[in-house]
Each structure stands twice: as C-alpha cells, then as structure tokens.
UniProtKB/TrEMBL annotation:
<dbReference type="GO" id="GO:0045892">
    <property type="term" value="P:negative regulation of DNA-templated transcription"/>
</dbReference>
<keyword id="KW-0804">Transcription</keyword>
<keyword id="KW-0805">Transcription regulation</keyword>
<keyword id="KW-0238">DNA-binding</keyword>
<dbReference type="InterPro" id="IPR014757">
    <property type="entry name" value="Tscrpt_reg_IclR_C"/>
</dbReference>
<dbReference type="InterPro" id="IPR029016">
    <property type="entry name" value="GAF-like_dom_sf"/>
</dbReference>
<dbReference type="GO" id="GO:0003677">
    <property type="term" value="F:DNA binding"/>
</dbReference>
<dbReference type="GO" id="GO:0003700">
    <property type="term" value="F:DNA-binding transcription factor activity"/>
</dbReference>
<dbReference type="InterPro" id="IPR005471">
    <property type="entry name" value="Tscrpt_reg_IclR_N"/>
</dbReference>
<dbReference type="InterPro" id="IPR050707">
    <property type="entry name" value="HTH_MetabolicPath_Reg"/>
</dbReference>
<dbReference type="Pfam" id="PF01614">
    <property type="entry name" value="IclR_C"/>
</dbReference>
<dbReference type="InterPro" id="IPR036388">
    <property type="entry name" value="WH-like_DNA-bd_sf"/>
</dbReference>
<protein>
    <submittedName>
        <fullName>Transcriptional regulator</fullName>
    </submittedName>
</protein>
<dbReference type="Pfam" id="PF09339">
    <property type="entry name" value="HTH_IclR"/>
</dbReference>
<dbReference type="InterPro" id="IPR036390">
    <property type="entry name" value="WH_DNA-bd_sf"/>
</dbReference>
Length: 287
C-alpha cells in the first residue's frame, strides 16, 4: 500500500507588522528623494530609495492623500502641506526672525546677494537668501545644502565647531566643487585658523566659478550658531575691510536681536582699511 503524503498547508501566521520607527524611516527615505527641484517618477523614487516598487507606490499615494506630496500625471512633487510646515518652521525660528531686517539692510548697503545659514553635519543649510536679479545666478535656495568647506558661511562656522561632531574629518579627500575648492585636511585646518584669527571667512570661486563670498559667524565670541554672508561676481567683491566691517556689524546686530538687545546698527560699506583680527573674548567683556 502506497502512503500518500498530504501537501503542507500554507502558513496562516500573520506577517509581522512594521514598527512605527520603520514606517517613519521609509517615509523619510521617500521625502529625502525630493532633495532638489523638479518632479520624480515612481521609477526614479524606487531607484533613489531602494524600496520595492509596490511599497513605494502605496506610500506615495498615501502621502498624496495627506498633501505631503502632489501627483501630476505619473510624476510626483512636494505637496503644499510640506511647504506650509516648512514655511512655519522657518518663520517661527527666532534666529530667522531676528536676522531678516539686517539681511535686507546688508543687501541694500552692498548690492550683493545675502545669505543666512546654519551648520548641519558637514553641510550648510540656507535659512534665508536676499537679493535682486543677481540672486538667480547663484544656485542656492532656502532649505538647500552645500558642502561647508567650499563656502564662506561654512568655513565661518566650521572654524568654531567641535571637530568630533563633524564627519567631514573622516573623509580621505574633501569633495571639490571647482578647481579652487579646498581638497585636503591640511588646507582646511590652515584656512580655519585664519578664520578664527580674523573672525571672517572668504570663498574665492570655491563653490561657484566666477563668484565669491565673504562671511562672518553669528554668536558669542568663540562660537558660531549661524553665519551671514554676501556673495557676488568676483569683479564686484571686496575681500578687505570695506566688506568685512559691514558684515561684522550685521553679524553683531543679528546676535543682539536674538538675545533681545535694544541696539541695532545698520551695516554700511566702509573705506578701504587693513583687515584686522577679531576682538578677543577678554576685550569683548571689557567693552
């Protein structure tokens, strides 16, 4: 007699549900795919996130329902809810609010594009950009990022940052945006030492060919919670006291406004004078 072996019944064990943190991670992956201008197709999002196509599609459709994303035919783009939340976060920020009047005054005084930025890891994140038609020639945007070591605002903050908190020093070679970009740790350390000495940072075509920037740190002596810069074509930039003085006044005015100080000095272009070092902490305390 031949024994008949019954086929195994399919498992009825339910699939393990995703944890809340796993869901958040996947949502973050999808939203991070939209890190630049323009729309993305489902295929592009799958490539950028590494998610299965079916999972990515379900998540995209749910994010569209929540207004976090917007669908246009087969393309997806950031939705109005994210714009609303992002705008609210920026405008509620104390530093941003305190800086706005001074940024516009600095732009009026120099005629150049003005940036306010903070440091996040080894990148700068732009909180504000003020400028006229020249602003379109400089490919920065509010919320956008750039490598800190290639920018004046980045160097102004890196000079006073804790090295242990910045993964920039783990890289063997620093990425270059132009042929003038700093590419070695030795070059960067030398540059940051100058920034600490003078309290000012320069970008001479290091992030964008044909353009330069001058930046000053914002914060108490010896620290930089943010930085402010002026940028423009190299033939209009002044890498001396004429530009340094209004920048220092702007940085000081912003920090006083953040701390609730009553005095605000409008930045003005200065006559050409030698570049002087940043006042020491002791001198600031005696003043």
């Amino acid at each position: 007699m031949t024994a008949t072996i019954a086929p195994l019944a399919p498992s009825t064990k339910p699939a393990t549900p995703e944890t809340p943190s796993a869901v958040i991670d996947r949502v973050s992956l999808v939203l991070d795919a939209f890190d630049g201008p323009g729309r993305l197709t489902l295929a592009q999002i799958v490539r950028r996130t590494g998610l299965p196509r079916s999972s990515a599609h379900r998540m995209l459709e749910r994010l569209v329902q929540l207004r976090w994303l917007r669908r246009n035919g087969r393309d997806y783009e950031l939705g109005m809810r994210l714009v609303e939340l992002g705008s609210l976060a920026v405008h509620q920020d104390r530093l941003h609010k305190a800086a706005i009047p001074t940024l516009h005054e600095l732009h009026a005084a120099t005629g150049l594009v003005v940036h306010l930025a903070v440091l996040e890891g080894s990148d700068v994140v732009y909180m504000e950009k003020v400028g006229n038609r020249m602003a379109a020639a400089i490919p920065t945007r509010v919320g956008g990022r750039q490598s800190a070591h290639c920018t004046a605002v980045g160097k102004a903050m890196l000079a006073f940052a804790d090295e242990s908190e910045i993964d920039l020093w783990d890289a063997d070679v620093l990425p270059r945006r132009t042929k003038y970009s700093i590419s070695t740790h030795a070059q960067l350390r030398s540059e940051l030492a100058k920034v600490r000495s003078h309290g000012i940072a320069f970008d001479r075509e290091e992030s964008l060919p044909g353009f330069g920037c001058v930046a000053a740190p914002i914060g108490d002596p010896g620290e930089a919670v943010a930085a402010v810069s002026v940028c423009g074509p190299m033939n209009r930039m002044m890498f001396d006291q004429r530009m340094v003085a209004p920048l220092r006044m702007a940085a000081m005015g912003i920090w006083r406004a953040v701390e609730g100080g009553p005095v605000r000095v409008a930045p003005t272009l200065q006559p050409m004078r030698p570049l002087r070092g940043r006042p020491s902490t002791a001198a600031m305390q005696l003043a």
